[in-house]
Predict the structure.
Amino acid sequence: MTELLVPQASDVLLLIDVQNDFCPGGGLAVPEGDAVVPLINRLAACFAHVVLTQDWHPAGHRSFASSHAGRAPFETLEVDYGTQTLWPDHCVQGTPGAELHKDLQSDRGELIVRKGFRPEIDSYSAFFENDRATPTGLSGYLRTRGFTRVFLAGLATDFCVHFSAVDAAREGFTAVVVEDACRAIDLEGSLAAAKRAMIEAGVELMDSARILA
């Protein structure tokens, strides 16, 4: 029998980008993205501390395909901080698509980290912008609060969850991804690559049953 994992006072549940544009019908819909919401709500009830992230792009963001003449969504572009995937417009500040999913029970969230608001830098991780140098401030917040273990759930497994989990581990936190409380985009094998990268970084991948059983 799998050992039950009971969240402790030094644990935090980090909910990644559970927003309308990443759910069916949204600008950058993740397949079955909304299916994680009921499970996330159950998980959140088990944790004393919850933090959320929110993609928060200005109109005309550099990561949008529409900002580059002749470019289509999901093409790539070399920029000063590396290879940029060009996305459909999504999570534009102040639009319904940027709002948290209506069924997400977010009231217990103690902090919402908005990311991707700098027009020239995309942001997958909850900890750093994609230039890998500009921090969001989340590491300092978690340390100040005395958290040592970060559980992650949300959207999408192979991008924002993946980068956030790897950065959490690199920042010295124990990082745990609750796989069945996430969904992936899976662009050309990106999910398998993300799992390999997370495991190599020391991130634990687990099922929600260990907490909810």
Q: What stands out?
A: The longest helix spans residues 157-170. The beta strands are 11-16, 50-55, 76-79, 82-85, 109-115, 149-155, 174-183, 204-206. The CA atoms of residues 180 and 207 lie 6 Å apart.
